[in-house]
Design goal:
Layout (H helix, E strand, L loop, with lengths): L11 H20 L2 E4 L3 E5 L2 H15 L4 H12 L7 E8 L7 H7 L9 E5 L3 E4 L1 E2 L4 E2 L2 E2 L2 E7 L2 H8 L5 E7 L2 E6 L2 H12 L2
Helix pairs in contact: 1-2, 2-3
Length: 196
């Protein structure tokens, strides 16, 4: 999938002019790319446009105008864009009550180590999430994680075959949940495999 290029990124002034329309587009796009797995975990599958939006919003929030800082943000966020034969997602551990933040997060320690998060395609394939490092320690875990799922050509073909269910599964000692991807979501994610 095409990475975000520095020339695509608008300065803060130019971004403000298009922000409302771009936000509406991204909100609709993310509806097709978001899945809740139980009541505590949400995955949002990233692509070129979702990443460009994050870069633009970061620049806006930080009032970023320095070219080197912007270039660094583009390089950092581009790591979220899936490579060939991959899907890429941001995984959120959802905690609404600030008093529950630490106990809930503590219950997820170890989620990013081992094979606790995976995609299940029919009865045939389990594709385990590969977590970006640096979002946890032995006794702490972040609420936000960046994950990738690497597919073989056969797995991609089976993902595209709507006779097979595709589930997102979390199988952790303190949290077990699964969610079936809708056909609409799969059609959206198939574009990630088909884009250059």
């Amino acid at each position: 999938m095409r990475k975000v290029e520095l020339t695509e990124v608008k300065n803060i002034y130019e971004y403000e002019k298009i922000r409302d329309d771009f936000r509406k587009y991204i909100i609709e796009l993310k509806k097709r790319r978001r899945i809740s797995v139980g009541d505590r975990v949400t995955l949002v599958f990233e692509n070129h446009d979702t990443v460009l939006f994050q870069i633009q919003e970061m620049m806006r929030a930080e009032r970023m105008v320095d070219d080197d800082e912007i270039k660094f943000e583009v390089e950092t966020y581009n790591q979220l864009i899936p490579e060939k034969d991959e899907l890429s997602a941001t995984l959120f551990i959802e905690v609404d009550d600030p008093k529950l933040l630490r106990p809930v997060l503590d219950s997820f320690i170890g989620l990013d180590r081992g094979n606790h998060v995976y995609l299940q395609i029919g009865d045939k394939h389990k594709i385990y999430a590969q977590f970006e490092e640096g979002h946890s320690k032995e006794d702490r875990i972040s609420a936000v994680h960046f994950i990738k799922f690497k597919f073989t050509p056969e797995q991609i073909n089976d993902f595209k075959d709507f006779r097979n269910d595709v589930k997102v599964v979390i199988d952790h000692q303190n949290y077990k949940a699964e969610a079936v991807m809708s056909n609409e979501m799969r059609q959206e994610l198939i574009k990630d495999f088909d884009s250059d």
